[in-house]
Amino acid sequence: MKLFFFTSSAPVQGDNLHLFLKTCCKHRMITFSRYLLTVFLLVSFFAPAQSRGFELAKYGSDFLSTGGGARPLGMGSAYTAITRDVLSGYWNPAGLSGIDNWQFVYMHSERFAGVVGYDYGALAMSVDNSGGVLALSFFRQGVDGIKNTLHAWDPEQNRPRSNPEQYITEFSATDLAFFLSYAQKINPVWHWGVSAKVLRSRLGPFASAWGYSLDAGIQRRGERYQFGVNVMDLTTMLKYWTVNEKEWEGLKNFTNPLTEQSEEIPSGANEVVLPRIKIGVGRVVDIGNVILTLATDADILMEGRKTYYLNVGRIHIEPHLGAELAYQDLLFLRTGITDIHLDDRQNVFVSPTLGAGLRVGAFMVDYGFNSFAGIASDLGFTHRISLQLHL
Question: Do 338 and 306 contact (CB within 8 A), yes or no?
Fold first, then answer.
């Protein structure tokens, strides 16, 4: 028996019901996504006027600098010009252009010897009859199991309670980010893309913040060389903080025994994050069954950081270098250099990276290894594993 579902144009047979429903859902998702991107463009246009009175936040969205995917990590995070898959929602939204199928990715990594957990997931799909591509990306970084000892203090006696364990609780400090991206080609060589993003930061029950901004990128895909630019937080990012004063009541009558002074209760302060510009150049060399990919990136920030990298006034530059060797598009070996530091004596420190990948049918498994040398090695190794699926 066959079922018929009638629309305004023609009946849909039960055999084609799955395709029909998939097309309808996809159309609704595309319409909603375009509407949401339009709203973000309008809101972001007026963002600079609203940012008056905001404090400049260095490292305000720095947890996103880790990026998504094990392949970029293995290549020293030099990925702006060469990205061509679902990972592009973060690295350069223009890289989504050209995707003609459904792509999924999930990644988990642990930083600083497992203290910080980092998760990333994304999906991308082509938009029928328009040549565009939509993508959704999700990031979470968190430290879980933090002890809250505020209520274990007896403010009247100005000392710990007799049974402090009963008053100690745990909380998490987390940062979340959601990206909605769209990309399309201008011509076979030039491609463009944008990402609207929302950030959510939470310090347990004590404070939380919302932030929003817009990224925009372009790519030039030549026969020999690739070029890419991604302006992150193009409109600047505005973060709105809220402090739960009730959770800080344990500090009101607390006197620090070392300073003999009362502790100050934190207050919320809204923040503005300045743009970050990622510029990349790539080269692909075809050597028979082997393909060599070379890439270099430069991250340009304008926050006045003086701790490392190359500084010119309030501008500092973070360079990245990477290479990948692919054998018959099945086996991949990668290496790179990142975290280039200069100390007060002008000594140079670098952090090398390593990586590998294996393609099995529609699946792609990637591994990245970082922070095993250089200054960052003192904080523990970083392992990153990601899994991609192309349908």
Answer: no
Residue-wise pLDDT tens for the chain (391 aa)? 333 333 333 344 444 444 444 444 444 444 544 544 554 444 444 444 444 467 777 776 778 888 899 999 999 999 999 999 999 999 999 999 989 889 999 998 877 767 788 899 999 998 867 778 999 999 999 988 888 877 777 766 667 777 878 878 888 889 999 999 999 999 999 999 999 999 999 888 888 889 999 999 999 998 889 999 999 999 888 888 888 877 776 666 666 666 666 666 666 678 888 889 999 999 999 888 899 999 999 998 887 666 556 667 778 888 999 999 999 989 999 999 987 776 667 677 788 899 999 999 999 999 998 765 555 555 566 788 999 999 8
Give the residue numbers spanning the domain of 161.
13-390
pTM of the model: 0.77
Total residues found in the chain within this entry: 391
Identify residue 300 by its one-letter amino acid code: I
Q: How many Cβ atoms from other residues are within 10 Å of residue 273's Cβ?
A: 24
The number of folded domains in the chain is 1
Tell me if 2 is assigned to some domain. no
Residue 266 is given by DSSP the state: P
